[in-house]
Amino acid sequence: MVRKTKAVMDRVNVVCERLDNEYGTDTRTYLDHRDAFELLIATILSAQCTDKRVNMVTPSLFAKYPTVHDFATADVKELEEAIHSIGFYHAKARNIIGCARKLESDFEGEVPRTLEELTSLPGVGRKTANVIRGNIFEDPSIVVDTHVKRISKRLGFTDSDDPVVVEQDLMMILPRQNWIRYNIQIIYLGRTICKAPTPRCSECFLKDICPSYK
Prior knowledge:
By secondary structure, the protein is mainly alpha-helical. 57% of the residues lie in helices and 0% in strands.
Protein backbone atom coordinates (compact mmCIF):
# COMPACT_ATOMS: atom_id res chain seq x y z
CA MET A 1 0.00 0.00 0.00
CA VAL A 2 1.28 3.44 -0.94
CA ARG A 3 2.43 5.80 1.82
CA LYS A 4 0.57 9.08 2.14
CA THR A 5 3.66 11.30 2.15
CA LYS A 6 3.81 15.03 1.45
CA ALA A 7 5.55 14.34 -1.87
CA VAL A 8 2.77 11.98 -2.95
CA MET A 9 0.01 14.37 -1.88
CA ASP A 10 1.68 17.31 -3.65
CA ARG A 11 1.85 15.20 -6.80
CA VAL A 12 -1.80 14.17 -6.42
CA ASN A 13 -2.91 17.80 -6.25
CA VAL A 14 -0.95 18.78 -9.36
CA VAL A 15 -2.11 15.71 -11.30
CA CYS A 16 -5.78 16.32 -10.45
CA GLU A 17 -5.51 19.99 -11.45
CA ARG A 18 -3.84 19.17 -14.76
CA LEU A 19 -6.30 16.39 -15.55
CA ASP A 20 -9.19 18.81 -14.97
CA ASN A 21 -7.54 21.44 -17.17
CA GLU A 22 -6.81 18.95 -19.96
CA TYR A 23 -10.01 16.89 -19.99
CA GLY A 24 -12.56 18.92 -18.06
CA THR A 25 -14.69 17.71 -15.17
CA ASP A 26 -17.41 15.83 -17.06
CA THR A 27 -18.12 12.47 -15.42
CA ARG A 28 -20.06 10.93 -18.30
CA THR A 29 -19.09 7.35 -19.05
CA TYR A 30 -18.08 6.39 -22.58
CA LEU A 31 -20.70 3.63 -22.64
CA ASP A 32 -23.96 4.75 -24.25
CA HIS A 33 -27.02 4.18 -22.05
CA ARG A 34 -30.41 5.63 -21.18
CA ASP A 35 -30.86 4.25 -17.68
CA ALA A 36 -29.20 2.26 -14.91
CA PHE A 37 -30.08 -1.15 -16.33
CA GLU A 38 -28.71 -0.35 -19.78
CA LEU A 39 -25.46 0.87 -18.23
CA LEU A 40 -25.28 -2.29 -16.12
CA ILE A 41 -25.63 -4.51 -19.19
CA ALA A 42 -23.22 -2.39 -21.22
CA THR A 43 -20.61 -2.52 -18.46
CA ILE A 44 -20.89 -6.31 -18.19
CA LEU A 45 -20.37 -6.49 -21.95
CA SER A 46 -17.36 -4.14 -21.81
CA ALA A 47 -15.12 -6.57 -19.91
CA GLN A 48 -12.14 -7.38 -22.17
CA CYS A 49 -13.80 -5.34 -24.93
CA THR A 50 -13.67 -1.75 -26.11
CA ASP A 51 -16.45 0.72 -25.33
CA LYS A 52 -16.63 1.49 -29.05
CA ARG A 53 -17.48 -2.13 -29.87
CA VAL A 54 -20.05 -2.31 -27.05
CA ASN A 55 -21.71 0.89 -28.30
CA MET A 56 -22.01 -0.70 -31.74
CA VAL A 57 -23.88 -3.70 -30.30
CA THR A 58 -26.15 -2.22 -27.64
CA PRO A 59 -28.62 -0.24 -29.80
CA SER A 60 -29.94 -3.37 -31.53
CA LEU A 61 -29.55 -5.38 -28.32
CA PHE A 62 -31.74 -3.03 -26.29
CA ALA A 63 -34.25 -2.86 -29.15
CA LYS A 64 -34.53 -6.66 -29.07
CA TYR A 65 -34.59 -6.85 -25.25
CA PRO A 66 -36.07 -3.54 -24.00
CA THR A 67 -36.82 -4.57 -20.39
CA VAL A 68 -35.28 -6.46 -17.49
CA HIS A 69 -37.92 -9.17 -17.98
CA ASP A 70 -37.01 -9.55 -21.64
CA PHE A 71 -33.41 -10.31 -20.66
CA ALA A 72 -34.51 -12.55 -17.77
CA THR A 73 -36.57 -14.71 -20.14
CA ALA A 74 -34.17 -14.58 -23.08
CA ASP A 75 -32.98 -17.72 -24.84
CA VAL A 76 -29.27 -17.98 -24.14
CA LYS A 77 -28.43 -19.02 -27.72
CA GLU A 78 -30.33 -16.07 -29.18
CA LEU A 79 -28.64 -13.69 -26.75
CA GLU A 80 -25.24 -15.14 -27.64
CA GLU A 81 -26.00 -14.48 -31.29
CA ALA A 82 -26.95 -10.88 -30.50
CA ILE A 83 -23.62 -10.22 -28.73
CA HIS A 84 -21.36 -12.64 -30.62
CA SER A 85 -19.06 -9.86 -31.88
CA ILE A 86 -18.08 -9.11 -28.27
CA GLY A 87 -15.44 -11.21 -26.54
CA PHE A 88 -16.41 -13.97 -24.09
CA TYR A 89 -19.99 -13.79 -25.32
CA HIS A 90 -20.92 -17.25 -23.99
CA ALA A 91 -20.17 -16.32 -20.38
CA LYS A 92 -21.54 -12.81 -20.77
CA ALA A 93 -24.85 -14.08 -22.13
CA ARG A 94 -25.27 -16.43 -19.16
CA ASN A 95 -24.32 -13.69 -16.70
CA ILE A 96 -26.68 -11.15 -18.24
CA ILE A 97 -29.62 -13.54 -18.04
CA GLY A 98 -28.69 -14.49 -14.47
CA CYS A 99 -28.29 -10.84 -13.55
CA ALA A 100 -31.71 -9.93 -14.94
CA ARG A 101 -33.35 -12.86 -13.14
CA LYS A 102 -31.80 -11.84 -9.82
CA LEU A 103 -32.90 -8.23 -10.33
CA GLU A 104 -36.46 -9.51 -10.76
CA SER A 105 -36.35 -11.95 -7.86
CA ASP A 106 -34.43 -9.87 -5.30
CA PHE A 107 -34.72 -6.20 -6.29
CA GLU A 108 -38.15 -5.80 -7.90
CA GLY A 109 -36.52 -5.32 -11.29
CA GLU A 110 -34.55 -2.27 -10.21
CA VAL A 111 -30.76 -1.85 -10.22
CA PRO A 112 -29.62 -1.64 -6.57
CA ARG A 113 -27.31 1.05 -5.20
CA THR A 114 -24.90 -0.47 -2.69
CA LEU A 115 -21.64 -2.20 -3.51
CA GLU A 116 -22.74 -5.32 -1.65
CA GLU A 117 -26.05 -5.56 -3.51
CA LEU A 118 -24.51 -4.86 -6.90
CA THR A 119 -21.73 -7.41 -6.50
CA SER A 120 -24.31 -10.05 -5.57
CA LEU A 121 -25.48 -9.95 -9.21
CA PRO A 122 -24.00 -12.50 -11.65
CA GLY A 123 -21.23 -10.98 -13.76
CA VAL A 124 -20.88 -7.89 -11.56
CA GLY A 125 -17.57 -7.28 -9.78
CA ARG A 126 -16.29 -4.23 -7.96
CA LYS A 127 -15.35 -2.45 -11.18
CA THR A 128 -18.82 -2.79 -12.72
CA ALA A 129 -20.50 -1.96 -9.41
CA ASN A 130 -18.45 1.22 -9.04
CA VAL A 131 -19.30 2.29 -12.60
CA ILE A 132 -22.98 2.08 -11.65
CA ARG A 133 -22.51 3.76 -8.28
CA GLY A 134 -20.53 6.64 -9.76
CA ASN A 135 -22.39 7.27 -13.00
CA ILE A 136 -25.98 6.52 -11.96
CA PHE A 137 -26.17 7.28 -8.25
CA GLU A 138 -23.28 9.78 -8.16
CA ASP A 139 -21.80 7.98 -5.16
CA PRO A 140 -18.06 8.74 -5.14
CA SER A 141 -16.29 5.61 -6.30
CA ILE A 142 -13.03 4.46 -7.87
CA VAL A 143 -13.21 2.27 -10.96
CA VAL A 144 -9.97 0.32 -11.40
CA ASP A 145 -9.62 -0.86 -14.97
CA THR A 146 -6.39 -1.66 -16.80
CA HIS A 147 -5.68 2.02 -17.57
CA VAL A 148 -6.33 3.25 -14.02
CA LYS A 149 -4.18 0.49 -12.54
CA ARG A 150 -1.29 1.01 -14.96
CA ILE A 151 -1.16 4.81 -14.89
CA SER A 152 -1.76 5.14 -11.15
CA LYS A 153 1.22 2.86 -10.62
CA ARG A 154 3.36 4.89 -13.03
CA LEU A 155 2.39 8.07 -11.17
CA GLY A 156 3.44 6.53 -7.85
CA PHE A 157 -0.11 6.52 -6.47
CA THR A 158 0.02 2.77 -5.80
CA ASP A 159 2.61 0.02 -5.81
CA SER A 160 0.15 -2.85 -6.26
CA ASP A 161 -1.26 -4.80 -9.19
CA ASP A 162 -4.25 -5.94 -7.12
CA PRO A 163 -7.30 -3.90 -8.23
CA VAL A 164 -8.76 -3.89 -4.70
CA VAL A 165 -5.52 -2.54 -3.22
CA VAL A 166 -5.24 0.03 -6.02
CA GLU A 167 -8.79 1.13 -5.27
CA GLN A 168 -7.98 1.50 -1.57
CA ASP A 169 -4.77 3.43 -2.30
CA LEU A 170 -6.56 5.87 -4.59
CA MET A 171 -9.42 6.37 -2.14
CA MET A 172 -6.85 7.25 0.51
CA ILE A 173 -4.98 9.91 -1.49
CA LEU A 174 -7.36 11.34 -4.10
CA PRO A 175 -9.79 14.12 -3.12
CA ARG A 176 -13.23 12.54 -2.82
CA GLN A 177 -14.73 14.98 -5.31
CA ASN A 178 -12.25 13.77 -7.93
CA TRP A 179 -12.92 10.05 -7.60
CA ILE A 180 -15.46 9.66 -10.40
CA ARG A 181 -13.85 11.97 -12.92
CA TYR A 182 -10.35 10.57 -12.25
CA ASN A 183 -11.61 7.30 -13.71
CA ILE A 184 -12.80 8.94 -16.93
CA GLN A 185 -9.75 11.19 -17.27
CA ILE A 186 -7.20 8.42 -16.73
CA ILE A 187 -8.98 6.10 -19.17
CA TYR A 188 -8.71 8.78 -21.86
CA LEU A 189 -5.06 9.44 -21.00
CA GLY A 190 -4.36 5.71 -21.21
CA ARG A 191 -5.99 5.37 -24.61
CA THR A 192 -4.24 8.34 -26.18
CA ILE A 193 -0.86 8.95 -24.49
CA CYS A 194 0.06 6.73 -21.54
CA LYS A 195 -0.34 3.50 -23.46
CA ALA A 196 0.91 0.03 -22.65
CA PRO A 197 3.60 -1.03 -23.19
CA THR A 198 5.03 2.07 -24.90
CA PRO A 199 3.73 5.34 -23.44
CA ARG A 200 4.19 8.54 -25.43
CA CYS A 201 5.93 10.30 -22.58
CA SER A 202 7.24 13.17 -24.71
CA GLU A 203 3.63 14.17 -25.44
CA CYS A 204 2.39 13.89 -21.86
CA PHE A 205 1.39 16.95 -19.83
CA LEU A 206 2.36 15.07 -16.64
CA LYS A 207 5.89 14.03 -17.64
CA ASP A 208 7.67 16.61 -15.45
CA ILE A 209 6.07 15.21 -12.27
CA CYS A 210 5.76 11.53 -13.24
CA PRO A 211 8.20 9.25 -11.36
CA SER A 212 8.19 6.83 -14.32
CA TYR A 213 9.29 9.38 -16.89
CA LYS A 214 12.82 8.72 -18.14
